[in-house]
Amino acid sequence: MTRLFRRQPRRFSLRKQVQSALSHMAIIGVGMFFFIPFLWMVSTALKSDIDVFRNPPTLLPHDNVTVEVNGERLPLYSVTQDGVTRQLALVSAVSGMGTFVDPADPSTPMEIRLRDAQPILRVALRWQNFADAMNRATRPGLGVNFWTYFKNSLIIAFFAVVGTLLSNAPVAYAFARLRFPGRDALFVLVLATMMLPFQVTMIPLYLLFNEFLHWGDTFLPLIVPTFFANAYDTFLLRQFFRTIPEEMCDAARVDGASEFQIFTRIILPLSVPVLATVGVFTFLWAWNDFLGPLIYLQSPQNFTMALGLQDFQGQHIVAWNLLMAASLIFTIPIIIAFFFAQRTFIQGIKLTGSKEM
Amino acid sequence: MHSGQASRPPGRLARWVARWSPTTRRHFRLGMLFIAPWTIGFLAFTLYPMLASLYFSFTEYRFRGTSQWIGLGNYRQLFQDDLFWTALGNTAYMVVIGVPLLLIFSFICAVLLNLKVRGQSFYRVVYFLPSIVPVVASTMLWLWILNPNSGILNSFLGIFGLHGPNWFHDPAWSKPALILLGLWGTGGTIVIYLSGLQDVPVSLLESAELDGASWLQRLWHITIPMVSPITLFNLITGVIGMFQYFSQAYVFGAAVATVGNAIGAPLNSTLFYSVYLYQNGFIFLKMGYASAMAWILFFIILGCTVLLLRFTENITYYAG
Q1: What is the nearest CA distance from B17 to chain A, expressed in angstroms?
Q2: If residue B252 lies in a helix (H) or strand (E), which one and from where to where?
Q3: What ipTM score was computed for the predicted complex, to two decimals?
Q4: Using CA atoms, how far apart are residues A293 and B246, in angstroms rounded to an integer?
Q5: What is the pTM of this model?
Q6: What domains can be seen in chain B, in order of their start residue?
């Protein structure tokens, strides 16, 4: 690009190489902090119950290598005794001692200390965990499983997207393009509401929906407000609508189009990318929301995934593999959406400065 | 908050409206029709709840009963409530230590991702991906990573002969653990910083390089000042967000607690402001008390924003 200032290519090559190596090391080093927990989530989701609590933990899911002895599948161990290492199958174990047999000659059992024996492992992915996590009846008798929560999250997120798009677009259009008295003052009011923390309106809203409208334990308190526009999306859409050339609308006006026709026939078709951004972000917000469902939803039949994940934490023991499998099921739709709409994601973050997606 | 119209005397407002031409009237009606969703939503879901919570904050609210006006009683009681101060202190810890750490770390990540290396777009995805994991899921994941017995972090530290802390089970380490969880999900802030870094004029960096400025000098004297408006933006949104910190603390309080009170476990070390507010409002059903907390929160946030804007006026660089 900058031909004039092109430096001599060879002279700094060693220095450049060292710089490049250092850059890579730093990026990969920090990248591990982001990557390994992710890998750990996927790996745990694919581990068997025993493998989860293996100490020290293995980064990849492992399973015991087994052999068939007298019609039974037994785990294979590597046993070291008197400097000789053999592969033996474990029949039973009692307080530190194990009964082993040689798979080649199963007739003579041997008593060997378990600490001389190391299980032989192989990488094994337990995909069954995903099915188990989805189908596990975490609350017996209610007919509720993770599918229920998945379905509920999907319903709420779907209607939130529909409501947000339907309600914010016309409002944003009015603030962007219509000229009417009081418009700018009202727009300042819209922006001012962004400053208000949810905590301030949370309790009266709860009472309004629960006690007055009797919408407690339904999806309505989570869906209905999205049909009444919000400051962030109105602002975002307005900023975009203002970039659409006014001349196009004027031309349509001369041809006798009404404002409503201009809005639906010209503005909306030109705004598909930004509408997609708003849609994706609304979906994420509704999908991830925890406080809203926590306040409004009481029966497990109505829980979203954000609430239902806690089912996997029992009183004493946590089924970490199933919990991680469920967490992944919770996350995967978002990751898929991200890979389909990467540009939309990044654009949305830059436009809204939103970190709480 | 007040619009231009509201400050006009009503007589003038009426006269102003009367002077509108038929076209203006038509425009006004059309505008009102288009913004109707917002107007209704604002009145029902913002203005009414705001006024109601202000009113509740001066009452001893009885759930499904008659409330009693107690004036400043809730506010007075709050200032004598030890847990209120605990919650405020815990939140202040996250704001004062957590937010700057998050910003510095995000900035460093953005600088790394802006380096011209092969596979840059791949690394960007890796750094960003954790931030789209739903917070409840990422909190669960970190509970598992930081599990003192079978977790991967303490096992990793064990390789070097280090004995990792008990993290979520130790009141001294529970907040650092939450900050760690926050760092992992900081992708959004990284993206914002990255877009800021890409706006730093290349010509400026190149001329500094020709003048013999080292990479660190360029970073310190050009890049950091040039992205200072973004730092300010991230700082303000970070502080506002941290004062409302809830889901992560709630989820792991519930996971860590053995019996009884799940909120704030261990030993109220994760009893943050919004968590205590929730507890008062929805568990103790002291809704008047919780409303008073909400209004105090609002003014703290407002105050912090104003102070940050005031103090950074001279050290923020706005190009153009």
Answers
A1: 9
A2: helix B247-256
A3: 0.89
A4: 13
A5: 0.88
A6: 10-56 (no CATH), 76-312 (1.10.3720.10)
